[in-house]
Amino acid sequence: MNRFEGVLIGTDSFHKGEAVLLHHLEEVFVEMEEEPEVVLEQSEKESVGIFYDCDLGMYGIEPFENRAVFLESGQPLGKHRRYYLGRDTAIYLKQREFAIVLG
Fold first, then answer.
1. pTM listed for this prediction
2. What total of structural domains would you count in the chain?
3. Residue 78 belongs to what domain range?
4. Closest listed residue to residue 58, CA positions, set 21, 38, 83, 93
5. Inside any domain, residue 1
6. Residue 45, pLDDT score
């Protein structure tokens, strides 16, 4: 059975034209150095974990530090809380220029 799996899509100002595919419940992490970088292994440097749940049709987002992830509206997501967001939601990582779309 074919079903949609998740994808993180880069925006005009951050990784334009790039996409990271997410398999069901496979978590990727974003490390925040000068620019955010998506990595597959958890480390001490990551600021957020992101996964896609095919059964729910939602993305799970869990920031590991304060003011690391924001909704497009500017609302910050709280540290060590898991949020479920729908497809086509834009979030940004620390700064508006580091925006990604949950495809």
1. 0.89
2. 1
3. 6-102
4. 83
5. no
6. 79
